[in-house]
């Protein structure tokens, strides 16, 4: 696996290829990231991953400084998974001057759910992803569906800016007990790790209720929030939305529209998110 720290090195390595497939990451890689590499590999002639912990998408009180940087292990995992080229720019390479031009996703999509609890998050994500796209110039880019809203924001950006990139959403990779893999799972204590699967179980339970004909979404969401709170969680949201735009569904035709159940909750100091399409 080749490694490029600068844009010049990246462009030089890429010059021999026509169809780069791109998997952007913030490092601290787990099986879920490696599944994105495996899924992307057959879709182009060179598989490019990036590792860049993007300051722009962290709020001041969030974990930018402590976000795990696991460089040596990440390189080994990527090489073993068949990644051809790793772009790992230093901050001054990607942001040589303050990034004052930014990509702003529409409020209806970006200021709800994650964007409500993490204001500015999607501006930070969209801005860095656009910039990484301009660096790598991929034909295909693969993102995990665990970050459901992020995937929608990126698809919208690509569509509205007519970027010549196919965005592929990859199924969430889960541990045996059902917990969605996430770099932040590493923050969980052993006891919290056992409890963590309750987020996925709660979403499953909500999905089962909808399939069984429940239409009182407000009450169902309230009960789900209460159940997790009783177990010691601090839920931000547990909610049923339309897949098309993440807005609240119309109750009269609930099951006629593709739905998704989304949740975000803190367990101890660790904030976890997950979702489930119905
Ligand atoms: O999902 C992530 O890891 C990040 O949000 C991304 C897409 C790499 C942008 O920093």
Commentary on this structure:
It is a single chain. 37% of the residues lie in helices and 20% in strands. It is of the alpha/beta class and 278 residues long. It folds into 2 domains: 2-170, 3-Layer(aba) Sandwich (Rossmann fold), CATH 3.40.50.620; 183-277, Pantoate--beta-alanine Ligase, Chain: A,domain 2 (2-Layer Sandwich). Strands 1-4-3-2-5-6 form a 6-stranded parallel sheet. Strands 7-8-9 form a 3-stranded antiparallel sheet. Helix 7 crosses helix 8 (148-160). The mean pLDDT is 97. The protein binds pantoate. Residues 24-26, 54, 57, 125, 128-129, 147, 150 line the site of pantoate.
Helix and strand arrangement:
Elements: E1 2-4, H1 7-14, E2 20-25, H2 31-40, E3 46-51, H3 71-81, E4 85-87, H4 91-94, H5 107-110, H6 114-117, H7 121-136, E5 140-144, H8 148-160, E6 166-170, H9 190-195, H10 198-211, H11 217-230, E7 233-242, E8 259-267, E9 270-277
Parallel strand pairs: 1-4, 2-3, 2-5, 3-4, 5-6
Antiparallel strand pairs: 7-8, 8-9
Helix pairs in contact: 7-8, 10-11
């Amino acid at each position: 696996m080749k490694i490029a720290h600068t844009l010049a090195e990246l462009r030089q390595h890429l010059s021999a290829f026509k169809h780069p497939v791109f998997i952007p990451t913030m490092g601290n890689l787990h099986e879920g990231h490696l599944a994105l590499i495996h899924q992307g590999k057959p879709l182009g002639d060179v598989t490019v991953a990036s590792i860049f912990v993007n300051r722009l998408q962290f709020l001041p009180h969030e974990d930018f400084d402590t976000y795990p940087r696991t460089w040596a292990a990440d390189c080994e995992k990527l090489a073993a998974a068949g990644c051809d080229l790793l772009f790992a720019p230093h901050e001054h390479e990607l942001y040589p001057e303050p990034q004052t031009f930014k990509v702003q996703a529409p409020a209806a999509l970006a200021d709800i759910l994650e964007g409500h609890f993490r204001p500015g998050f999607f501006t930070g994500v969209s801005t860095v992803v656009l910039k990484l796209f301009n660096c790598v110039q991929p034909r295909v880019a693969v993102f995990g569906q665990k970050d459901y809203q992020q995937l929608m924001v990126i698809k919208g950006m690509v569509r509205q800016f007519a970027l010549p990139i196919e965005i592929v959403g990859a199924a969430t990779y889960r541990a045996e007990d059902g917990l969605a893999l996430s770099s932040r799972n590493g923050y969980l204590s052993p006891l919290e790790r056992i409890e963590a699967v309750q987020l996925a179980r709660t979403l499953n339970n909500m999905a089962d209720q909808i399939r069984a004909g429940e239409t009182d979404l407000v009450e169902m969401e309230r009960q789900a929030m209460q159940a997790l709170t009783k177990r010691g969680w601090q839920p931000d949201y547990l909610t049923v939305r339309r897949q098309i735009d993440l807005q609240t569904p119309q109750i009269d035709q609930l099951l006629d529209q593709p739905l998704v159940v989304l949740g975000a909750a803190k367990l101890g100091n660790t904030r976890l998110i997950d979702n489930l399409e119905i």
